[in-house]
Amino acid sequence: MSNAKSFELDLKFGFWYLKLSTLIKQEKIMSKIIKREYPSQPIVGVGAVIVKEGKVLLVKRGKSPSFGEWSIPGGAVNVGESLEQALLREIKEETGLVINIGKPIEILDKICRDEKGKVKYHYIILDYAGDYVKGKLEPSSDILDARFVSPEKLDRFGVNESTKKVIEKALEDSGKKDERIATETEIISSWDFKKARWYHRAIKESDFPGKALEVLQPITHGCKSILDIGAGCGTLSIPLAEKIKYVTALEPSKPMMDIMKREAFKKGLKNINFVNSHWGKVRLPPHEVVILANVPGLLNDIGKFLNQLEEIKPRLIILIRGVNPKNDKFYFKQLYPIIFGKTVPEKDDYFAVYSYLHRHNIYANVRIISYNLDQPFNDLEEALKFWKVYLSLKSKEYDQVIRDFLSKKLVKTPNSLIARIPKKSAIIWWKINKV
């Protein structure tokens, strides 16, 4: 056979081999599609609630059975894959992102029938919590759109109720995970985040919100709008929003704001305007009531603060301030001499504020409330890290001293250690008569 003829046969063989390979690949793809439609048995799928900076990743589906719907990313498990392998692959393929997989959140059935009642799709879906690690968000051809969304905005995207419940569970799990013991590096680099989580744990166990609301609800009855300055994790904003038509929660700390948004989402509240900013750095509309609870920095120059409030045009001003400057919160009065060789600086309490108001012909009402703001810890090591953060200690020089001190102070319970912190606060309020 001539070389020319041999070459021609080789070309033909190569062409048909390539053609056959393509057909085989297409047949495999088609077989997968066929198996997904009118399947002989349920198909296992995986999904993830991916959280980045307090926001949740949503994808808009470009294929049936959920075409055009916003949901969480994920897909089917291939033969030979573990659930986690499938989830990592699907997230990478659909969004371009790399994630850390958390614990399983929910198991769901998704069964879709055709017009004759025959099962067209049947998925069993395992949804996981997940955290963004790295990568640029780049939706695949199967995804029409993808974006990170604040939990309180899910309704704008038409997210169905079952998916919202999964997201809520995942966010709750994320909050609990953030409360676990951090490494030394985490404490130094993200102490504000840790403080927010610790404070939220204390507030959840505290009777402060209930005691404060016993005073606040009668005096704010009938009001339609409240501005809560320094709203923290929503200690007052959230329960007040359940009674008041409109609440603005002003909070400069993003970790605190993230917690507050999550708690409001869990309660289904949509009447809170979240403003992540410092007082005086953003223009705010008029509100009937202004609340400033336990933000002593703004009361260092109370005259300036009251002048700034004129732009808000409140009819009622409520200040909440600590009582008894000698109260030994976090045992600082005992620890400062041991560690720093000096006494803890004294602080003003509510009486300085009340006296200023009286001198300027503002005759305010005052109610003193007593409550507990106990701080729970998983164990002694977490408590040690807590005190090192609040004492601004980065070295291990005093670790054993603090351990020994705390082991005598903290109260053991079946599930935790508790720092008992009894407190008193003064609720000061007065009405402004408009001329």
From TrEMBL:
What the entry lists under PANTHER family is as follows:
ADP-RIBOSE PYROPHOSPHATASE (PTHR43736), DIHYDRONEOPTERIN TRIPHOSPHATE DIPHOSPHATASE (PTHR43736:SF1)
What name has this protein been given in UniProt? Answer: Nudix hydrolase domain-containing protein
The record lists the organism as Candidatus Schekmanbacteria bacterium GWA2_38_11
Keywords, sorted A to Z: Hydrolase
Output the Pfam families linked to this UniProt entry. Answer: Methyltransf_25, NUDIX
Q: Does the keyword Hydrolase apply?
A: yes
- Please give the Gene Ontology molecular function terms for this protein: hydrolase activity
Which part of the chain is the Nudix hydrolase domain? Answer: 41-171
